[in-house]
Specification:
The complex is a heterodimer of chains A (266) and B (255). Helices cover 85% and strands 0% of the residues of chain A. The radius of gyration of chain A is 23 Å and the shape is flat. By secondary structure, chain B is of the alpha/beta class. Chain B is globular. The longest helix of chain B is centred in the last third of the chain and has 18 residues. Classes of the chains: A mainly alpha (266), B alpha/beta (255).
């Protein structure tokens, strides 16, 4: 009885918080829609949402195709960055030489705005897929590698002493203790990188490209078509949300214990 | 009984030059097999340092420790170890955490299925074997950690203030668990604590450590019958031991 009562309460709570968000968005778009005629905002400055939907749907096929192009750059770059970031992160965590050489190097590069390299990569590798993927990797790599180093170096003192007292091999300790213990902090890096990934792909396309959503947005903005630019931004947002949603889902699947631990501690 | 553990002029200094901290020793201790020894002292006296050196997890600055005439020179793997903060991993259930100890040692968890059941039952955790540590209270977590530390049936058990973070009632309860286990299996127990009452209740011998740098002030044999239940704890003799130890620490200005 008590548990079904609780479930009902949770459901009500979910409705309450969910509806507030939906209501907020509805009010936001209504305000946007009606403030255009009200404040006499010219449509070449800011179009109404209804117009964005209407004009954008005429370009729907192109937008879908470009979402695929930008999506491929983003996803390829992102997953390569995870592989490289985890690889380097683990190597640096376990090698004192790398920790004294590569690690400070990475930390100092982290201070450089990576996107500043974008024009160089375009000039080196041309207009195709490769320079965009490299720029996405560059943007995503650092949060992943730095969080991985933090993750693999923060095993509690007790667990370190415990595994030493069992005489387990380094490999066994890695898979049974170090790797799972590091996952939550690694996901902090994966999530942060997921947010940056579409930024990298879009800016790379701004600089030199003949397809993709970034290319689309820069062209239609040049043609004084903010309605289409907003349509492009909408698809970019969708792309970013999908990637972030996927990473969050992976976190739930791979480390469910971490999610429930957080819930209990809160 | 045979002399089992021999600690000879052991000393630990951390750091070097002007920054060096003399943490412990020199001290000599000899322990017989099956004894329950409490290392009792104020915080910062180096008693945990001593325990880590015994486990081979910390190198001594000078002196030696030997088990059965074998000098400790690397982490000892034939011991059970427990700390104030438990060694349960959050991604495994209570049972999974106990199995972790076996897996890390290359032992087959299947061979230990009965023993796992038995030890969980002895601390009343059998209904919680599928729970994750985050779902347990601090006391239950520590009991689970206790099972984890004992499952491979070590001859020597090193306990570093395992009850330090628990409330008074839970401490009382787990002391009984530890005492029962010791009475049944008679392992050699080294119990690091700063609770005088706890040391007197559990130990066959209490070793009093001075404030830093920790040295042995004296050793007191506790001649009270086991099991040391409430009745024993209410006795004159129990009270006398507690007072005697209190006097010692009072002289050091600790209490």
């Amino acid at each position: 009885m008590a548990s079904s009562n609780n479930k009902f309460k949770n459901f009500l709570r979910w409705i309450a918080s969910g509806w507030m968000l939906i209501l907020f968005f509805v009010l936001f778009f209504l305000f946007w829609e009606y403030s255009i005629p009200l404040f006499e905002i010219p449509r070449y400055i800011l179009p109404a949402p209804s117009e964005i939907v209407q004009k954008g749907s005429a370009d729907f096929d192109k937008l879908i195709y470009y979402t695929g192009v930008t999506g491929l750059e983003t996803v390829l770059g992102y997953f390569l960055a995870i592989i490289l970031g985890l690889g380097f992160g683990i190597a640096i965590s376990f090698s004192s030489i790398l920790r004294r050489t590569l690690y400070p190097f990475f930390v100092s590069i982290e201070m450089t705005p990576k996107i500043a390299f974008a024009p160089l990569f375009i000039s080196w590798f041309g207009f195709g897929l490769l320079p965009k993927v490299i720029i996405v990797i560059l943007v995503c790599f650092f949060p992943i590698v730095l969080n991985a180093i933090l993750a693999f170096n923060s095993l509690s003192n007790e667990l370190t002493l415990f595994h030493k007292s069992t005489g387990a091999s380094a490999l066994k300790t890695f898979f049974k203790i170090r790797l799972p213990a590091a996952m939550p902090q690694c996901f902090v890096g994966f999530k942060y990188a997921a947010i940056n990934a579409t930024v990298g792909a879009t800016i790379a396309e701004f600089i030199g490209s003949d397809q993709g959503l970034g290319f689309y947005i820069s062209i239609v903005t040049g043609n004084m078509r903010p309605d289409l630019a907003f349509a492009g931004i909408f698809f970019l947002t969708l792309l970013g949300l999908t990637l972030f949603g996927f990473v969050t889902l992976m976190e739930k699947i791979l480390i469910p214990w971490h999610i429930s631990m957080k819930r209990i501690n809160n | 009984m045979e002399e089992f553990i021999k600690i000879h002029s052991i000393k630990k200094i951390f750091g070097s030059g002007e920054d060096q901290v003399h943490a412990f020793g020199p001290a000599d201790i000899s322990i017989k097999s099956g004894e329950f020894i409490s290392i009792l002292g104020p915080s910062g006296c180096g008693k945990s340092t001593l325990m880590l050196m015994m486990a081979g997890l910390l190198r001594s600055s000078s002196g030696s420790i030997s088990f059965d005439n074998q000098i400790v020179s690397e982490p000892k793997t034939d011991i059970g170890i427990m700390f104030q903060d438990n060694t349960l991993v959050p991604w495994r259930t209570v049972e999974g955490n106990i199995k972790l100890q076996l897996e890390l040692r290359g032992l087959s968890p299947n061979d230990y299925a009965d023993k796992i059941h038995e030890i969980l039952k002895s601390v009343n955790l059998e209904d919680f074997k599928d729970r994750f540590p985050s779902e347990l209270s601090g006391g239950m977590q520590q009991r689970a950690a206790f099972c984890q530390a004992m499952i491979h049936e070590p001859k020597t058990i090193l306990l570093d203030e395992p009850l330090g973070k628990l409330d008074a009632m839970t401490r009382e309860r787990i002391r009984t668990d530890i005492q029962n286990l010791w009475m049944t299996h008679k392992p050699t127990v080294i119990f690091v604590t700063h609770s005088i009452e706890e040391a007197v209740q559990l130990s066959s011998r209490v070793i009093l450590i001075t404030p830093r740098p920790g040295k042995i002030d004296r050793e007191i044999e506790i001649d009270l019958p086991y099991p040391r239940n409430l009745e024993v704890k209410r006795s004159q003799k129990f009270f006398k031991y507690v007072t005697e130890i209190q006097e010692v620490f009072h002289q050091y200005g600790v209490i």
